[in-house]
């Protein structure tokens, strides 16, 4: 079977469009069931509206609200270290940075973090989660990455919060060595509420009524 060039071009274009559907970064995937998200990109001097590193660093230390269209009000900030918004992205040696959000969806069950972090040191970085103002420093339940040799290294961390009870705030702590950071996104996925016992009783009663009506209809038709 021979594929015509025009058809092949259309397929490639469609594939490229799908790959770039996420508005935060083309490497990010849309999280299934996401009820709310916060995204940060253009983390450089120009993107922050600064002419020099002093201005942009001050903004990073004070906290940068999610700046991608459709985002919530989570804040990203540098707690310590020397990363600063350079000409292309956040650049520096050792730093501790945090993502903080106090406006969460109800029945929050999962947090999904995606980031483009080019790790030049080769030592990797750590990401932990604390919630409700605590210092739990929980590790992710699932971690995956796609490494590109320091061009746009992609990391995805999934945190399972379903067994923690009500979570009304979170703080993600990112410990990074010598690296460059380009974009981040945090998605909130709600867990479907468990029906009350009375709901199960009503469902059972309804199913029983449907069955009784079906049997009665058969007898009437006979």
Give a count of the beta strands, DSSP E runs of length 2 or more: 12
Helix content: 10-25%
Query: Which descriptor suits the 3D outline?
Result: elongated
The ordered string of helix (H) and strand (E) elements is: HEHEEEEEEEEEEEH
What's the CATH class, please? Mainly Beta
Q: Mean of the pLDDT scores?
A: 85
Architecture in CATH?
Sandwich
| Backbone CA Rg | 24 Å
- How many structural domains are formed by the residues? 1
Keywords: Signal
Organism: Pelomonas dachongensis
Domain Ice-binding protein C-terminal: 193-217
Signal peptide: 1-21
Explain this structure to me?
The protein has a single domain (29-210), classed as Immunoglobulin-like (Sandwich), CATH 2.60.40. Strands 1, 4, 5, 7, 9, 10 and 12 form a seven-stranded antiparallel β-sheet that branches. Helices cover 23% and strands 35% of the residues. The chain contains three helices and twelve strands; from the N terminus they run αβαβββββββββββα. The chain has 222 residues and is α+β, with helices and mostly antiparallel strands. The protein is elongated, with a radius of gyration of 24 Å. The model is unreliable at 1-20 (pLDDT under 50). The termini are far apart. The longest helix is centred in the last third of the chain and has 25 residues, at 197-221. Strand 4 (84-85) and strand 5 (90-92) form a beta hairpin.
């Amino acid at each position: 079977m021979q594929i015509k060039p025009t058809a092949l071009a259309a397929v490639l274009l469609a594939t490229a469009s799908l790959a770039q559907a996420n508005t935060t970064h083309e490497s990010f995937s849309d999280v299934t069931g996401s009820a709310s998200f916060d995204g940060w990109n253009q983390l450089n001097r120009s993107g922050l509206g600064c002419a020099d590193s002093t201005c942009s660093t001050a903004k990073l230390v004070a906290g940068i609200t999610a700046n991608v269209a459709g985002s919530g009000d989570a804040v990203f900030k540098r707690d310590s270290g020397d990363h600063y918004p350079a000409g292309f992205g956040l650049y520096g040696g050792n730093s501790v940075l945090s993502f903080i959000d106090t406006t969460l969806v109800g029945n929050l069950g999962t947090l999904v973090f995606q980031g483009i972090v080019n790790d030049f040191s080769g030592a990797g970085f750590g990401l932990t989660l604390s919630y409700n103002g605590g210092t739990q420093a929980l590790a992710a339940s699932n971690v995956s990455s796609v490494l590109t040799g320091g061009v746009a290294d992609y990391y995805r961390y999934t945190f399972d919060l379903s067994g923690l009870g009500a979570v009304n705030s979170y703080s993600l702590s990112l410990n990074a060595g010598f690296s460059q950071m380009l974009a981040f996104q945090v998605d909130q996925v709600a867990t479907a509420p468990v029906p009350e016992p009375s709901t199960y009783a009503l469902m059972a009663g309804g199913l029983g009524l449907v069955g009784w009506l079906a049997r009665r209809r058969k007898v009437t038709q006979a």
